[in-house]
From TrEMBL:
Keywords, in A-Z order: Amino-acid transport, Cell membrane, Membrane, Transmembrane, Transmembrane helix, Transport
Signal peptide residues on this chain, from the entry's feature table: none
Bilayer topology term: Multi-pass membrane protein
Gene Ontology MF: a single term: transmembrane transporter activity
Species in which this protein is naturally found: Candidimonas nitroreducens
Pfam (any one): BPD_transp_2
Record protein name field: Branched-chain amino acid ABC transporter permease
Length: 298
């Protein structure tokens, strides 16, 4: 493979995977801002979304739109079950309880995946939407696989939709208010418990969509969730745990670092690069690239 072509493929795959990490990080940031908590099951929901997409596309032969609908339906169902199970814990003062509950949810989702799909991994044959002629630039010197373009476009569309949701929707404004000051939001009549529950459901929906986009590009296996969570969490740390745009930038940066390390160093050093990036960011930018400074009242 020519150097220019290799670089273009590495950059394309890095951006595509990075945007998916950014989606996972977006879910992490949403819950962190609204409930000051972390959902350790975030990556497992990504895995569940991938397996559901695998089943509907490969086994049942559904189309892309029908598969998206099924993935969203499963995500909403899981979100509602989490809401019922953790209703008493979804309060600002019970962040530790939510943390522990999410660990239990992580093991539960892994168990469900093993029960339904078994303990072995499997590949999803590239669906028509993700296959086709690559994008050829510079007279054939730069070739970008269509799969990465579709993943990138899908991730960007989802990010734009959720950005508009947080900026203009009533629930999005409520989430931002609760994130800024939960007690003040409660005083002015904002239903904080409902907002926190909605934040959990929204983070699960985002994760499931990321799983759908990731399914055609990776080996699906039951224990993949924790690794995905770590990468999403790393992206959130790099961008700033309280910044929605930072989650996306952090994800893309992490994806590019992983892709370049895998291509020019070793694929075995790919996962290590994520931890090196986190350590470097915490050392030089403790609040992340877009982290907000907390001001103390005097």
């Amino acid at each position: 493979m020519e150097i220019k072509n290799m670089i273009s493929v590495l950059v394309a795959s890095g951006v595509a995977n990075g945007l998916l990490y950014g989606l996972i990080a977006l879910g992490v940031v949403v819950l962190s801002k609204a409930a000051n908590a972390v959902n350790f099951a975030q990556g497992d929901v990504v895995a569940l979304g991938g397996f559901v997409a695998f089943t509907t596309l490969k086994i049942f032969g559904f189309g892309i739109l029908a598969t998206i609908g099924v993935v969203l339906l499963v995500a909403l169902l899981v979100g509602c079950l989490v809401y019922v199970a953790l209703k008493r814990l979804l309060k600002p003062e019970h962040a530790n309880g939510l943390l522990i509950g999410s660990i239990g949810l992580s093991f539960l989702i892994k168990g469900v995946i093993r029960l339904i799909w078994g303990g072995q991994g499997d590949y999803l044959a590239t669906p028509p939407m993700f296959s086709g002629a690559p994008l050829i630039l510079m007279g054939g010197k730069v070739v970008i696989p269509l799969q990465y373009l579709v993943m990138t476009a899908g991730a960007i569309v989802i990010l734009v939709v959720f950005s508009l949701f947080f900026r203009f929707s009533r629930l999005g404004l409520f989430m931002r208010s609760v994130a800024d000051n939960a007690r003040a939001a409660m005083i002015v009549g904002i239903p904080t418990s409902f907002v926190l529950c909605s934040a959990v459901v929204l983070s699960i929906v985002i994760a499931a969509i990321a799983g759908f986009l990731l399914a055609p590009a990776t080996l699906l296996y039951p224990d993949m969730g924790f690794s995905l969570f770590l990468k999403g969490f790393a992206a959130a740390i790099v961008g700033g745990i309280s910044s929605l745009p930072g989650a996306i930038v952090g994800g893309v940066l992490l994806g590019l670092v992983e892709s370049i390390v895998s291509g020019y160093v070793s694929s075995r050093a790919q996962d290590l690069s994520a931890f090196v990036l986190i350590f470097s960011m915490l050392l030089f930018f403790p609040r992340g690239l877009f982290g907000e400074k907390k001001r103390r009242a005097v």
